[in-house]
Amino acid sequence: MQDFAEFVNELTSGFTPVIGGDYKHDDYTYIDLSENNRELLKLEVASSEAFSAFIFEFLKNKNAKAAYGGYNELRTLYNRSELFNNREANRNIHIGLDIWVPAFSEIISPLDGKVHSFKDNANFGDYGPTLILEHSVQGRKFYTLYGHLSRRSLKGLKEGDQIKVGDKIAELGDFDENGDYAPHLHFQVIEDLNGNIGDFPGVIKKEDLDNFLKNCPDPNLLLKI
């Protein structure tokens, strides 16, 4: 069978939006939120308001409307949350793609699919409201995950709801409902959910990295930002 990453890359031929509205390809700029970004040392990362101001200033300086990045990125900003920073978990490698845009921005589906599951993962530092879509292309099943949504995004959803490419599927939540983060979308492509419903690890520990890189390839292979 074809390598999953190669399969995902061939699903789209060019820039494929997941943020609705008038965002164009040129409106995006890459942001490094790894431990190597010294600007983060000046920031009180425990404050979602301070982090929002940091993102806003970054976009202003770059003359951009949206920032993206974070796949396979070692981050220290998770140290604020016991969900990740405890002896058992020790998770600090981000395995999805983050897109930083204002709260309540529309989220659209990059592919045809259907609603697999959804859940409000309400722990501090967690996804908050989360949606998982199921896709089937050429007989191959896989999933996309959308985290840090608004709570009203989950109202009225039903498992099995059919989704067309470009359909509005959700909106971003603000810090008071999205796990206490500056507003952003966590987008992840997953081959095997391993039985998860409405949730799937988006930050993992180093020991699990190889398996997750295979199961969750770079989402930018699909979006081509």
TrEMBL record:
- Key words of the record: Signal
* Domain M23ase beta-sheet core: from-to ranges: 93-191
Q: One Pfam family of this protein, by short name?
A: Peptidase_M23
Q: Which top-rank group of organisms is this from?
A: Bacteria
Segments spanning the bilayer are: none
Q: Does the keyword Zinc apply?
A: no
| Protein name from the UniProt record | Peptidoglycan DD-metalloendopeptidase family protein
Organism field: Gramella jeungdoensis
